[in-house]
Amino acid sequence: MLEKLISGRWNIWFAALIGMLLVAPAMNMGLMGDDYLHWSLLTGRATNTQPGSFFGLFTFADGSQKANQILMDSGKLVWWASDHLRIAFWRPLAELSQKLDYLWWPDSPVLMHLHNLFLYGVMILLVGKLFHELDTNRQQAGTATWLFAGNMLHVFAVAWLASRNQMLCGILLALTVLAYHRWRQGQSAVYGVLAAASLVVGLFSAEAAIQTMGYLLAYALFLEGGKPLLKRLLPLLPFIVIVLAWKATHSHLGYGSYGSPGYVDPSSNAAGFLTSLVLRLPALMLAQWYGVSSVMFEQLDRPVQYLYAGGATLVLLGLFYAIHYLGGFKSALVRFYAAASVIALAPACAGYPFDRLTVNSDIGASGLLAIVLIQVWHRRSQLKGWAQGSAKYLILLIGLIHVVVFPVGKLVSSAMMKTINTSGEALGALALPDAGANSSLHYLLLNAPSAEATYYFPVTREYHGMHNPATMHALGPNNQALTLTRVDDTTLRVDVPSGFKGTITRDVRLQPFKVGDTAHMGGMTALVEALTAGGLPQTVLYRFPDSLDNAHWRFFAWNEEGLHQVTPPIQGQSQIGRASCR
């Protein structure tokens, strides 16, 4: 029965349906993070004019010192961010897709999410079609489709409205590789044109479409055997020209990243990208194969990241050696899937590591696992002895994770998305009191869980009908232990032993801090008095334009119950705390 379902005529459609149903509970999640920014831009409450962009949905900082200073003055950008910070992505077709939501159902986030879900279903269908065209073994191709459809790591990519560009990119990646395959198999040259056109459309949907080149390169290397290497690589030339032309235009218009440790543009920071590749690729692949989430990786100190990446590399090498030992890589198709999944995942290492970034690479990983798992299962009684037995059980363990744990985890995590999202907002942005109309209040957050997330606080509160203060500034980073000292009537000293670390907004290797550095936040200033051994600000002196006891200054600290108002210490005294300041 199971084999018939996997190999049957309607296999792809059933897999797409089940894949959609597993993530369906997350469709009531509502808006989150970037979604609130998009809401403000697409409803005309704000503008963010960018060259080549319809609405500026994916430009968070444009690299202009003047524009970044405005963000720091309001508190949207933390003062320890790079004054030349650029985080700007060129995704005009994704913007148009999201604009349709606000034209068709502007007051229904559920329908917006269903739009995402529909695109995910289309992606599964096309990926399934690709598996079946590449592999004549229907059981292997069908299993690969089900593995992809049941992948737990896809939940956030589908559930988060701002991540729709990944669905569009995945659809167009599958179309490109499908058309390229038909063209290279001797069908009409029209398929070559279609492949090129699909790549162009994909690049205008998301930068992640460059991952398509990983599949095309792997195809030339492993699925066109018997031809001279040059003859296999030559058909890639038009696609390389397309990518180079797109990248040149992308950079000319001012898109890309600079000054951020979280987003590393290979074209402006090649050394930083290579470091990110070494560290993030093993972390993402560990999530992809073993389900060990990469979400907290960037929060680790750099020495711990190296240890983590080294351990992950050893674990992954063990898995691939087991596949090699059991003869899995004898198949050209397996080698194609393996190479494509790794090469395609490399560009994702330029971005802040999230499990959802594996979606396109999961096409190759699912195809690889399906073939190897079925082969090992069929030979399970023959694989004996310590070496073969160990390799067999490792492959079967990975199979158990992907066949059982991932689909169950996908359903459970989908059901939890709304609770996680709403509880996070309730403890953060919405925990701050309503400021009232025409407010001149200033909210100062001593140890918010994520200081850099204050970027979204104003639009999140506005969406929920709350009045914002004049400014909201983070004085301390990410709920770290700190000492707060009242120096005089208008001055506070904050000491954070672990330092003011910016995981997204400032790369201290590119723009190091110095003792004496001063940053302006509207009428306030922040003076760096001491640095940690790693070059992060440790002791910072905040000077205010008037007395800290004036009613318009409202101080907030965080504990497990959320942000709550506190009173700064009296002159000459200090307070020590982590989740609260007494």
Low-pLDDT parts are none
Largest sheet: 6 strands, antiparallel
* Total number of helices: 19
The overall average pLDDT, rounded, is 93
Separation of the first and last Cα atoms: 64 Å
What share of the residues does DSSP label as strand, in percent?
5-15%
Shape from CA axes? Answer: elongated
Write a brief structural summary:
By secondary structure, the chain is of the alpha+beta class. It is 49% helix and 11% strand.
Task: Produce the secondary structure layout.
Layout: H1 2-7, H2 11-23, H3 34-42, E1 59-62, H4 65-74, E2 86-88, H5 92-104, H6 109-134, H7 138-149, H8 155-159, H9 164-184, H10 190-203, H11 212-222, H12 229-233, H13 237-252, E3 256-258, H14 270-290, H15 302-325, H16 332-345, H17 361-378, H18 385-427, E4 442-445, H19 457-463, E5 471-474, E6 482-488, E7 491-495, E8 518-521, E9 524-531, E10 537-543, E11 553-559, E12 562-566, E13 574-577
Parallel strand pairs: 4-5, 4-11
Antiparallel strand pairs: 1-2, 2-3, 6-7, 6-13, 7-10, 8-9, 9-10, 11-12
How would you explain this protein's 3D organization?
The chain is of the alpha+beta class and 582 residues long. It has 19 helices and 13 strands. The protein has helices at 2-7, 11-23, 34-42, 65-74, 92-104, 109-134, 138-149, 155-159, 164-184, 190-203, 212-222, 229-233, 237-252, 270-290, 302-325, 332-345, 361-378, 385-427, 457-463; strands spanning 59-62, 86-88, 256-258, 442-445, 471-474, 482-488, 491-495, 518-521, 524-531, 537-543, 553-559, 562-566, 574-577. α2 packs antiparallel against α6 (109-134), α7 (138-149) crosses α17 and α17 packs antiparallel against α18. It is elongated, with a radius of gyration of 26 Å. The termini are far apart.
